[in-house]
Specification:
Order of helices and strands: EEHEEHHEEEEEHEEEEHEHEEEH
Strand content: 25-35%
Radius of gyration: 19 Å
Helix content: 25-40%
Largest sheet: 9 strands, mixed
Number of helices: 7
Number of strands: 17
């Protein structure tokens, strides 16, 4: 979610101060700018709540550790800073919350002592659940042997970008990406699900994509409320034979997919149950 795509109100904490707008915190010699040593996380705040913010803060610490960066702020300290940023906005604001770690110096590998940290909080309205179209991408997610798939890292996103670019050129909104073995991994920007005969199915985490915080929450909520959830290896053809298809992710939370290739879907009862349960959870402040 780019800052220029929002309404433009943003605050960033860097080196002990909050800065408005889009402060210039990297230069051409910065390792992250040059060699990609940037990890981040994305959470949400809306209606006065920030669901699972603690889990997002824990994940950014794990991502930074995976990259060999020196983590001198705990997840609890990061969460407190983010809540400072949230307080700069009205309670009704819909916000994106983005902590980042990166290296300033190093050659190929990072110099951990040069690790930098920031928190950005900015306006980013939640998209309406009107439905999107998806197609299977020719580009795949890598396995852990090929890329640092255990981290939410900026270096993964050029692959997502080219998948979305190719899908849009063919008239679709988003791309379904397979893993190296040809099983469905996720969308270019979110986790993917389908429902069949009243049961939910979603790809099992296999180190080719992140086990999303919202994904994990929805798995738990559905199971606690009587819906059978299958986490397993899934072929793309199974999605095309589904009763309904939907996504989970931080940006849109739970959202319907209304076309996969040339097959149309209606938002269905499993997606709606997942969405209702998630919003009840979020607005309940848990």
């Amino acid at each position: 979610m780019g800052w220029k795509e929002t309404t433009g109100t943003a605050w960033t904490w860097f080196r002990g101060e909050w800065h408005s707008g889009n402060p210039q915190i990297m230069g051409p010699m910065t390792h992250a700018h040059w060699l990609g040593s940037c990890v981040f996380d994305g959470a949400r705040a809306f209606a006065g709540v920030a669901p699972d913010l603690d889990l997002h803060c824990q994940r950014i610490v794990r991502s930074a550790t995976s990259f060999g960066l020196k983590v001198e702020k705990s997840a609890t300290e990061i969460e407190a800073l983010i809540r400072e940023g949230i307080a700069k906005f009205p309670r009704t604001a819909e916000l994106y919350l983005r902590p980042m770690f990166w290296a300033e110096d190093g050659f190929v590998d990072v110099d951990p002592d040069s690790t930098q940290f920031s928190v950005s909080v900015y306006d980013a309205p939640l998209p309406k659940p009107t439905g999107i179209s998806v197609t299977c991408s020719p580009f795949r997610r890598p396995s852990f042997e090929y890329a640092p798939t255990d981290a939410k890292a900026a270096c993964h996103y050029p692959n997502s970008a080219r998948a979305i670019r190719e899908a849009r050129a063919r008239g679709f909104d988003n791309a379904v990406m397979l893993d190296p073995l040809g099983n469905v991994a996720e969308l270019a920007t979110a986790n993917i699900w389908f429902a069949k005969d009243g049961e939910a199915h979603t790809p099992v985490p296999n180190s080719t994509f992140l086990n999303g915080v919202t994904r994990q929450r929805v798995v738990r909520l559905l199971r606690e409320n009587g819906v059978k959830v299958h986490e397993r290896s899934i072929r793309w053809e199974e999605f095309l034979g589904a009763d309904e298809v939907f996504s989970t992710g931080n940006y849109a939370k739970v959202a319907p997919i209304t076309r996969a290739e040339q097959k149309s879907f209606q938002p269905g009862p499993i997606m709606q149950k997942a969405r209702d349960l998630y919003w009840d959870f979020a607005l309940g402040g848990r």
